[in-house]
Amino acid sequence: MRIAFMGTPEFAVPSLRALVEEGYEVVAVCTQPDRKAGRGQRLVSSPVKQAALSLGLQVIQPESLRDPVEIQRLRDIGPEMVVVAAYGKLLPPEVLAIPRFGCLNVHPSLLPRHRGPSPVAAAILSGDAVTGVTIMLLDEGVDSGPILNQREVPILEDDTTGSLISRLANIGAQLLIETVPLWVEGKIAAKAQDESQATYSRAIDKDDGRINWQLSATELWRRVRAFEPWPGSYTWWGGKRLKVCKVVPLDVELHVEPGEVVALPAGLPVKVGVGTGKGVLGLVTVQLEGKRQMSADEFIHGHRTFIGSKLL
């Protein structure tokens, strides 16, 4: 079967590789155009483009899928199915209508929960115990099309967006390979989503990384995990940016002002804590700007004024 694949970030790569390994004819890989990145502002190819080229596949990088020229190019390629995984743009109706088996999307949440651009971070921020992967048919809405298959995945206490996306990417690839033949052979039916249960994730931006110590310890613990690896969570100490890499909420009764750094009593899993709007947040690892990442215990040995200071 002729399949066109659309995806951009690392999350999409396992699905692309799985289709090729399964023997499907991937006739084209559509991904976002190369973008300038880093201090040198060099053009950087997407992970999907890099993977596609290594597999010897045709790569196309349209600026817009609404361009009639690009739509006609896809028609000429003639895919029987389009598989989408975090492509980054909505597909217009003209593209949705091209493949006879439809456009299948690999979405990293249990739809209709956490539609939108940041479903993995949203699951962590919400304190969900489980998330998962949904294989669905795309329509003109935002992740609103009918569901073909789903698989639950537990969220571990130390999961970050990075670690969870990595697991979901591999599980999503497996589920995709299971689902495609079932759909093509008519062995599964598409099930409409329950709109009353729909929730929407928002786009994450750089400003989300700034820690607000007025929030509760539990909420900050979720935020640090949700914003790792990007944008990362940070605070200010002594006029310098301090990245807070790993934290743990503590079950301890201490009267500490929000942002105040304290030495913790023996018997707790960490030695350094910070007051919050509710509870104390234990610091596990931190990184001062221009320095390497280190344990909070090591950090206080090299920065004696840290205990008793105020984080902003």
Output the number of helix runs.
8
Structural category: alpha/beta
What's the Cα radius of gyration?
A: 23 Å
**How many domains make up the 3D coordinates?**
2
The best one-word shape is: elongated
Mean pLDDT: 97
Query: Helical percent range?
Result: 25-40%
Instruction: Report the sheet with the most strands, covering strand number, pairing sense and barrel closure.
Output: 7 strands, mixed
Care to describe what's here?
The structure is a single chain. The protein is of the alpha/beta class and 312 residues long. The protein has two domains: 2-197, Rossmann fold (3-Layer(aba) Sandwich), CATH 3.40.50.170; 206-302, Formyl transferase, C-terminal domain (Methionyl-tRNA Fmet Formyltransferase, Chain A, domain 2, Roll). It is built from eight helices and 15 strands. It has a seven-stranded mixed β-sheet. Strands 10, 11, 12, 13, 14 and 15 form a six-stranded antiparallel β-sheet that branches. Strands 3-4 form a two-stranded antiparallel ribbon. Helix 1 packs parallel to helix 6 (161-184) and helix 5 runs antiparallel to helix 7. 38% of the residues are buried. The mean pLDDT is 97.
